[in-house]
Each structure stands twice: as structure tokens, then as C-alpha cells.
Amino acid sequence: MPDIPPLAAAQERSLDDLLVAVARDRDREAFSELFHRIAPRLKGYLQRLGAGPAQADELTQEVMLLVWRRAGSFDPARSGAATWIFTVARNKRIDAIRRERRPEIDPGDPALVPDVPPSADRAIESVEDTARLRAAILKLPAEQADLLRLAYFEDQPHAAIAETRGLPLGTVKSRLRLAMGRLRRELEDGR
């Protein structure tokens, strides 16, 4: 009987065996073979999931790096190596989609930069201005002070104030105008 040369596929180790060798011995040759056999399939899979060619290349690299780092968590009794690796790839693609939808925070964004604290003299002026304003409000007639509080401190619209106080809208507006005029004069006289 003539000798039949063994098939090349019969000489190849299974993906499971390669991944176990990587996990157990940190076998670089096994990882290299695993990479060359599965990376092209991963890239195609990631492109079918919507990644562009460049992003698919990048994600494939990230997946294979994770395979190297986390090979010890592979359990051949639970799934095959290809299933485990493609699950890692799917999760990486989901993470990439989330990053695209929720971009990283730009620390230079003006909305995120805290306000510069006021200088000491400005802080003292502010406290003094607040005290003067409170004193001026106390000098107002009670109905004007009440309407002023509702409009400016509780931020209620004039129509809502008129309704809750049972006053015509025009009366609310004229009393607020009178109150603001008195406050302005009081604050100007106090300087």
C-alpha cells in the first residue's frame, strides 16, 4: 500500500488547542498561528457588524490583544475558541458604537471650565450689595415686596402671580414697576 501524505489540515492544531496553549504556556507561536487563522475572519465579521475597514482593523487588533491577555478565562468545556473570540469581538464592536454615540468629554470645553472665583474685594462688594438690596426690599410696601419676591426670587410669570393673588395682570405689572423704581432710587441713594 502506498504512503498517503497527511493532509495539511490534519497537521494544524485546532483553534481550541491553540487558545489553550496560549492560556497555559503563553505560547507565542500558538498565538501567532491563532492570529493568522482568525484575524481575517474577525475583520470580515466586524465589517458585517457595520465597522468600516480601518475601524475593523483596529478592533481586530484590540480583540486579539484581549485574547492574549485573557486567554486564561477561556473554558473549552463552555464554548469553542472561535465562539469565545467572536463574542469578544462583538462586545468590542458594541463598545465602539457606544463611544461613537457618547464621545469623550473635552476638558477644554468652556461649559466644563469652572468659573474663576471672584477677587476678595469683589466678594466683599457682593456681600455689601446683597445687604443693601435686602434693606431696600424691607422698605417697600408689603404688597410690592410680595410681588417682587414671587416674580424675581420664585421666578413666577406675571400671569401666574395675578391668578394666585387674585389681582388683575395690569395691577401686578404696575406694582412690580413701582417696586423696581423704588429699589433703584433706594440703591442709588445708598451709594
What summary fits the major beta sheet? none
**Which bin fits the share of residues in helices?**
over 70%
Which CATH class of the largest domain? Mainly Alpha
CATH superfamily (homologous) name of the largest domain? RNA polymerase sigma factor, region 2, helix turn helix motif
Number of domains: 2
Overall mean pLDDT stands at 87
Number of strands: 0
CATH topology of the largest domain: Rna Polymerase Sigma Factor, Chain: A
Poorly predicted parts: 1-10
Domain RNA polymerase sigma factor 70 region 4 type: 132-183
InterPro entries: RNA_pol_sigma-70-like, RNA_pol_sigma-70_dom, RNA_pol_sigma70_ECF_CS, RNA_pol_sigma70_r2, RNA_pol_sigma70_r4_t2, RNA_pol_sigma_r2, RNA_pol_sigma_r3/r4-like, WH-like_DNA-bd_sf
Keywords: DNA-binding, Sigma factor, Transcription, Transcription regulation
Protein name: RNA polymerase sigma factor
Q: Could you describe the 3D structure shown?
A:
There is one protein chain. This protein has 191 residues and is mainly α. It has two domains: 8-101, Rna Polymerase Sigma Factor, Chain: A (Orthogonal Bundle); 135-189, Arc Repressor Mutant, subunit A. It has helices spanning 8-11, 15-25, 28-48, 53-70, 81-101, 120-138, 142-153, 158-165, 169-189. Helix 2 (15-25) crosses helix 3. Mean pLDDT is 87; it is low at 1-10.
Structure keywords:
191 residues; mainly alpha; Rna Polymerase Sigma Factor, Chain: A; Arc Repressor Mutant, subunit A; 9 helices; 0% strand; rod-shaped; disordered N terminus; transcription regulation; RNA_pol_sigma_r2
